[in-house]
Amino acid sequence: MKLSIDDARGLAHACMATLGHTDGEAAIIADHLIDCELRGLSFGGLARALSVAERIKQSDGERRPITLLRETPVSATLDGGDQAGYLVARRATEIAIEKVKSSGIAVVGANQTWYTGMFSYYLEMITAAGYAGMIAGSGGHIVAPAGGSEARYGTNPIAFGFPSAGEPVIWDIGTSDVMLGEVLLKMRLGQPLTAGQAYDADGRPTTDPAAALGGAFKVWGGHKGSGLAMVVQLLGMMCGAAAAPEGLRDCGFFLLVVDPGLLTSGCDYRQRVSAYAATLRATRPLDASRPVRVPFERSSAERRRRLEEGVIEIPEQVYQALLALSGHAQPAPATQS
Which of 209, 212, 173 is nearest to 190 (CA)? Predict the structure, then answer.
């Protein structure tokens, strides 16, 4: 099913409004979901609206206002109030950017939240302002450490962003072999996981998404990725989040923003980042048909392409479920496939 970008955005907005979000909150979440779709990360796009709805209905109205727990000229800690992370992380990013303008460095942490989405989304905000940033996010136990088959980590994404004279250089990864959104989408569509990505509750390899959710995902990168996942969990705990929150709640969000001008010329640094990225692209490839890319280039190119096409494609099952959630009739799709 193909929808125009405007119709897809309107559908996402209507779904979030139905769940009790204000018009401004719905717009923030919808923008994030649509950006995921534009960048080819469909598991974090419109289908995620269904997961947000399920999570909110399970919480039984526990949401509270986002509150500031503590603050210094260079730091802040937020209680997310069990609000969706799209809202909490956006607030944290805005606070950090404001603080770094006067202090040159800012550290902002948040807890009591969930579903913070793509960290590169926030790093684009940070790098557009001329700053560098690092984000790490912890969560409930759903990933097994290297050498084990029981969950001890969250999917624990970590990301870095650097401003340049052109597009920013952003590296954004999850430390699990498969992300939660991918597993949930495959379960909705009745599709299996890739072999070797997960274990069931008894520690046996499984390709069944439901069994994986009751067991553990495999960690990414062997013992090195496992160590990185551990670090992310510890950074989330530094934000006040629990080491092992039960279910999808109390995820930690750690954000560090630095003005390169603290250490060097900010303008010169951006130029040098661009020049260095060019040397990476110029690397002799192993396969001439697959040139070396800089992280973030693929998804950025996908976004440009889809914006030019003006349409987003989603599975029919997801579209129908979104219509039911929104409670509103939607305009006819751009095309059907």
Answer: 209
Rounded CA separation 64/51 (Å):
19
According to the model, what pLDDT value does residue 329 have? Answer: 53
- DSSP characters over 78-139: EEEEEEEHHHHHHHHHHHHHHHHHHHSEEEEEEEEEE----HHHHHHHHHHTT-EEEEEEE-
Q: Which residues contact 5 (CB under 8 A, 6 or more apart)?
A: 34, 38, 306, 307, 310, 311, 312
Tens-place pLDDT, residues 244-260: 998 899 999 999 999 99
Using alpha carbons, list the distances in angstroms from residue 228 to 233, 270, 304, 319: 9, 27, 32, 36
Strands 75-84 and 67-72: antiparallel
Q: Is-contact 334 3, C-beta < 8 A?
A: yes
Task: Collapse the DSSP code of 311 into the 3-class scheme (helix H, G, I; strand E, B; otherwise coil) and give the result.
Answer: strand
Q: What is the pLDDT of residues 22-79, one digit of tens each?
A: 999 999 999 999 999 999 999 999 999 999 999 998 876 679 999 999 999 999 999 9
Averaged over 297-323, what is the pLDDT?
Answer: 96
Contacts (Cβ under 8 Å, ≥6 apart) of 199: 144, 149, 205, 206, 212, 215, 216, 217, 218
Only one residue has tokens 């944290």, namely 92
Q: What is the mean pLDDT of the chain?
A: 95
